[in-house]
Amino acid sequence: MKKHITPFYIETLVLVLVFVAVILTLTQVFGMAKKQSEEAKLLTAAVTLAQNAAEAFSVSENDEKLLALLDEGGNANLNSADGAVEAFYGADMKPDRGGVLRVRVERNAVSPFFSEGAIRVFRADTGGEIYSVETAATYAEEEGS
């Protein structure tokens, strides 16, 4: 008596193909999820750094004071071309001159007691903007002026 096991092989082959397709699909899904997670972490860091820069902007009447507040170990500088203050940070939001995030603060002094500003956070490697915020600050008159 001869046994025909061809249907068994076909079923096994179909199951293996389905299994491989599921594995490939899940690998892609997990890969995209990891990439989105890294982008979300970078966006969260960018928002926090912009918020910190906005707070520093609100208490500094000029770019030199802003630079002094943002500079931690040489991570910030005053751009001589346009007067913007730039600070560099790592993905962990720690000051890092060669970091992956660049915070740029541009000031437009409307009067001695009022300034408008734009804060932008860029990827240092690609230059792509991650987050930006517009801000303004009012400064008190100094005593004796």
Q: Main traits of this protein?
A:
single chain; about 140 residues; about 25% strand
Explain what you see.
The chain is of the alpha+beta class. It has one domain (6-138). 43% of the residues lie in helices and 27% in strands. It has 2 helices and 5 strands; from the N terminus they run H-H-E-E-E-E-E. The protein has a 5-stranded antiparallel beta sheet, with helices on one face. Strand 4 and strand 5 (129-138) form a beta hairpin. The longest helix is centred in the N-terminal third of the chain and has 54 residues, at 6-59. 19% of the residues are buried.
Can you lay out the helices and strands and say which pair or pack?
Elements: H1 6-59, H2 63-70, E1 76-78, E2 85-89, E3 101-111, E4 114-123, E5 129-138
Antiparallel strand pairs: 1-2, 2-3, 3-4, 4-5
Number of domains: 1
Annotation field: number of helices: 2
Please bin the fraction of helical residues.
40-55%
User: N- to C-terminal separation?
Assistant: 112 Å
Principal-axes geometry comes out as: rod-shaped
Mean pLDDT: 90
Tell me the quaternary state. single chain
Let me know the largest β-sheet.
Answer: 5 strands, antiparallel
Tell me the fraction of residues in β-strands, as a range: 25-35%
Find the structural class using helix and strand composition. Answer: alpha+beta
DSSP, total strands: 5
Evaluate the radius of gyration: 27 Å
Helices and strands, in N-to-C order? HHEEEEE
Instruction: Extract low-pLDDT stretches.
Output: none
Q: How would you write the strand order of the largest sheet?
A: 1-2-3-4-5
